[in-house]
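Residues and backbone
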Amino acid sequence: MENTKFVLDSIMINGEVQKLIACSDGENTTVTYKGKEVTLSAALASIFAEMSNQTNGEAVDAKISTAISELIGGAPETYDTLKEIADYIATHEDAAAALNAAIGNKVDKEDGKGLSAEDFTTILKKKLEALPDITAEQVENWNAGTKTATADSDGLMSKEDKTKLDRLSGVRYGAEVPDDLKEGEMFIKVVEQETT
C-alpha cells in the first residue's frame, strides 16, 4: 500500500497467532469526520480546536454570577436571597394576607372586553353602539349654523318650541292647579314623594 509506512497483521505469541492493529501516522490515515473524508491529523486538529473554544470553568462561574446579579436586580443585601425574602414574608403575614386578598379581588381580563361587565354593562354598550355616526361635515354645518331659534328658523330648539316659549308670560308651581291660571302661564305641579 503506497500511503502506509508499515503494517503488522499478526504475530505468534506463546504458540498462538495474535491479530494486531495496523499502524500508520495521522497524515496517512483517513477517517470520515462530519460527513467528509479527511486525514486523521486534520480531524484531531479540528476536534482540539473546538474543545479549546468551549467555555472554561471561570467563564461558567462568571455567567452564573451575572445571572444571579440580574435576578437580584439591585435588591438590598438584607433581601437578596430567597431565604431572606421567605423569612420577611413569614414575619409580616398580615401584610402578605392583605396583598393576597387584594390580588384575589382584582377584576379578571376577559377576551373581547376592555372593562368588566360591572363597570360597563352590555346594555350601555349597545346604546352607545346604536348612536348614529356624526360626520365631520355635520359637525362643520352645526358649528357654522345659527344656535338661536327664531320664529322663522330652528336653532338649538325648533321654531315651534321657540314660539311657545315666547308666549309664556310666567311660570307658577304648586300641589294643585290654581283657579286663576292665566293664558300664557306655565304651571308646574309639585308632588311630594316618599324617600326610601
User: Anything to note?
Assistant: Residues 170 and 185 are 5 Å apart (CA to CA).
